[in-house]
């Protein structure tokens, strides 16, 4: 995806003559086919913003301007000040790209967000599909137009009340020599490693910040050479103590040279101009504005992910232990939520929003809590059919015993990042709901019980999470799992079940989260976190399996045990004593207080 607002497109054929694919509208969605158009209260008026942007495009001779949904670091989660796509369109989904010409404005997003876009965009905007800057370049080549970048962001010029950068305090411990050794061991002999993703620099220096909501990151780039370290950062925010800790006053190979965050393009261009250099980048997280500077091609070395990301993905024994501990404390908070909801929902007093607030309050009381790891998905009934719905004051529905409820939430702790989803029903679920839930559970179990050779890619086993659903013609439209970090991002690449994820090895953590969503009715997702561990086999060595670290019970009344195989049942009984209590509750619907026997100290603190 292109860098945030840095890419200018001189022509885009896709914007001429295309019409918006028809989507059924309702009271909550816009209707631009009538006069005057119907716009729900959730729509943002973008007329003046588009006028101002187009006015700034004219003197630069820009035919079309691209506004990605990410920031200059291609981050999954972005700071409010980088939400340029939302500012221009009103659309708040996490995936999308907008293109503005003098006569049209179009948003590309995937099917998860089509309904949401209809609820949030006014009739200035049309809806289409995704492309990347490589696709743009290919499509433009035949028309004698080109894709280029400029350092000035036109959206920022329009956005007069753009949020400021937040202050932070950081500490660190250098891991530079390990990366330098990987550079020296490479047969391509890179002389420098460019780090663009925010978690790369945070990991390298063991630093945390608070520039990005829900993620402990700070704005930065790093250029690491064999004898220099350039850290591009907002230097005015660094304390004297931190500068001393970074050895910023010396000039040796283990001294960090602090440079202005905004000077990264100029400094990189100066470095690339030197003779005999080769810069190693991870293409998944290097923006086009930096990528285009590394020329000619013999000065460029690429891999999908940098050695920082692939190294960070494998947790050592200490990281594994403390990340497990974080999930134990997190389970307490989620169990408290479910116990509370079981008591208050029949009274008809609580909403999706109050439930989200309650689970975050429970987490805040746990040891080393640093807040939620993402915006809580608290959804009932038809709202749960939107896979990434989060309640607002306007959209929050009252929780009732007549509907299913899905809660996907997570916490940031000093020792780990958590993510868990549970789906429950406080009344009598339909047979369709029970079957769909059980088949989603079968997918979760089938993946978690799989034994596979080290180096297997998650994409090669992803269909196991869907097979039980496919058998009856059901499916889901999102990924099946993602990595998690040690007080990093809740979606930590490059671990997971997608085709562009790296092969699994021991020590990686991943979510396992199949689901099913029936439009305008209900949604189901069962998400657990698992660590990949060695698995002894009868004949072979170097085999792995998943060890579930999530400890929150499933809702027994939603499980049709007649659909489960004996292997699926027995796989979950071969666990620790505490997990046996969890599974016992899973099958026999004991009250969730059974887990007090496992975690008495933690739970008693909350009484």
How do the strands and helices of this protein lay out in sequence?
Blueprint: E1 7-9, H1 47-57, E2 64-68, H2 84-89, E3 97-101, E4 105-108, H3 114-120, E5 126-128, H4 133-141, E6 147-149, H5 154-158, H6 176-185, E7 192-195, H7 198-205, E8 220-225, E9 229-233, H8 240-245, E10 256-260, H9 264-272, E11 279-282, H10 288-291, E12 300-303, H11 307-312, H12 317-344, H13 352-364, E13 369-372, E14 377-380, E15 404-409, E16 411-413, E17 416-417, E18 420-425, H14 431-448, E19 452-453, H15 467-470, E20 482-483, E21 492-496, E22 509-512, E23 515-518, E24 522-525, E25 528-534, E26 543-548, H16 566-573, H17 577-588, H18 600-604
Parallel strand pairs: 4-5, 7-11, 9-10, 11-12
Antiparallel strand pairs: 1-2, 1-6, 2-3, 3-4, 7-8, 8-9, 13-16, 14-15, 15-18, 16-17, 19-26, 20-21, 22-25, 23-24, 25-26
Tell me what the structure shows.
This is X-prolyl aminopeptidase (aminopeptidase P) 2, membrane-bound. With 607 residues, the chain is of the alpha+beta class. It has three domains: 46-134, 3-Layer(aba) Sandwich (Creatine Amidinohydrolase, Chain A, domain 1); 172-313, 3-Layer(aba) Sandwich (Creatine Amidinohydrolase, Chain A, domain 1), CATH 3.40.350.10; 317-579, Creatine Amidinohydrolase. It contains 18 helices and 26 strands. Strands 5-4-3-2-1-6 form a six-stranded mixed β-sheet. Helix 12 (317-344) crosses helix 13 (352-364). The longest helix is centred in the middle third of the chain and has 28 residues, at 317-344. 44% of the residues are buried. Mean pLDDT is 86; it is low at 1-26, 167-171 and 575-607.
